[in-house]
Design brief:
- It is built from 6 helices and 5 strands; from the N terminus they run E-E-E-H-E-H-E-H-H-H-H.
- The protein has one domain: Ribonuclease H-like superfamily/Ribonuclease H (Nucleotidyltransferase, domain 5, 2-Layer Sandwich).
- It has a 5-stranded mixed beta sheet.
- Helix content is about 40%, strand content about 20%.
- The protein is globular and about 40 Å long.
- By secondary structure, it is α/β, with parallel strands linked by helices.
């Protein structure tokens, strides 16, 4: 019973805990204290999307993102967790190959792949939501990629 977590950082970020490749738990970053959430659910290895500059964002938005990202990394690294970084182009490049609609939008392709992997999941942030949450979908795929589960399917 191995539990790993994927984190999609940012304002609408999320944490998804996988247990042997299946989604065990998930929550929004703003709804928890990440370090405590991960430790409470028996996670020892975390895969977090590596921060990179986005040309369309204002300098104020990038500063706020960097501050939140740094705070997240600081709390996680001080907790004894094994923190690993996954560049967005790497995990999307590996997992979006399964999506016939990858050329339309990265978010649409991610949701397609996530629904193929976990058909029972709704990826909703709460029971009142009607649209799957991008942060939850991305965090699940980051954990799936980081845990190496996508490699097992090639055999």
């Amino acid at each position: 019973m191995t539990r790993i977590a994927g984190i999609d950082p940012g304002r609408d970020g999320a944490i998804v805990v996988l247990q042997d490749g299946a989604i065990y738990k998930y929550t929004l970053l703003r709804a928890c204290i990440p370090k405590l959430y991960l430790l409470d659910h028996g996670v020892r290895t975390v895969y977090i999307e590596k921060a990179q500059p986005m040309g369309r964002e204002s300098s104020k938005a990038m500063f706020n993102y960097g501050r939140e990202y740094g705070f997240l990394l600081g709390t996680l690294s001080g907790s004894g967790l094994d923190v690993n970084f996954v560049p967005p182009a790497v995990w999307t490049g590996a997992l979006h190959k399964k999506a016939p609609i990858a050329q339309h939008s990265p978010k649409v392709a991610s949701l397609y792949v996530a629904r193929q992997l976990w058909p029972d999941q709704t990826f909703l942030a709460s029971e009142r939501c009607r649209v799957p949450h991008d942060g939850i979908v991305d965090a699940a795929l980051i954990a799936y990629y980081g845990g190496g589960y996508y490699k097992e399917e090639k055999k």
